[in-house]
Each structure stands twice: as structure tokens, then as C-alpha cells.
Design a protein that fits this description.
Length: 107
């Protein structure tokens, strides 16, 4: 009989180096979820130093926040998407007027 401890088959932690540093990460947890949030957050923040890493804990529910607190969950997801879109827009605006000369293969 097992100890009841569960582990991910392919932990996200091992795949973090493959993500571009500019990609923000948002974690959403239920306050009463069985998932322990602190180690994952600190591991991600440490490995993605200088990147945006957000953590949201939604009170009054367990693990399935997307079903238990639909409106709060959707508000956080939409906020994360808008934040990313705003960053992309700001970066694109900063590049306007700064064109690189064509390279020889483009001629």
C-alpha cells in the first residue's frame, strides 16, 4: 500500500528552462486545495529570476477553482491575458521606428 503521496509524472519544474523569460506565469489555487503551493511558487520564482510569476489563492473552495468559483477564476485568467497583451503592445510600440537593415540573404 502506498503512502498516499502523489507526484507529477513530468513535473513542470523540469521544463521551466525551455520557457522564454518574457512569458509570464500565473498560478491559481483554491485555498483548500490538496496541492501544496509554496514550494512550486518559490521554485518557479527562483528558476525564472526576473520573470513575472503571479500567485492567486481563491478562498472558499478546494482544488477545482475553475468549477467552484467560475467568476473569480475567469477574472484572474482574463487579467493575466490582458497583462500579457499589454506587455506585447508596449514592446511592439517600443520597436516602432527601429528597423534593422536587411541582411544579405534578403536582397
Amino acid at each position: 500500500m502506498g503512502s498516499g503521496f502523489q507526484c507529477a509524472k513530468h513535473p513542470m519544474e523540469n521544463r521551466l528552462p525551455a520557457l522564454e523569460p518574457g512569458i509570464p506565469i500565473t498560478f491559481i489555487y483554491g485555498a483548500n486545495s490538496w496541492i501544496v503551493r509554496e514550494p512550486g511558487l518559490w521554485i518557479v520564482k527562483k528558476r525564472r529570476n526576473g520573470s513575472t510569476v503571479n500567485l492567486h489563492v481563491i478562498g472558499g473552495n478546494g482544488h477545482h477553482v475553475y468549477a467552484d468559483k467560475v467568476n473569480k477564476f475567469n477574472k484572474i485568467v482574463l487579467g493575466a491575458c490582458m497583462e500579457t497583451d499589454n506587455r506585447k503592445s508596449a514592446a511592439a510600440t517600443a520597436r516602432v521606428g527601429h528597423h534593422s537593415p536587411p541582411n544579405a540573404s534578403a536582397l
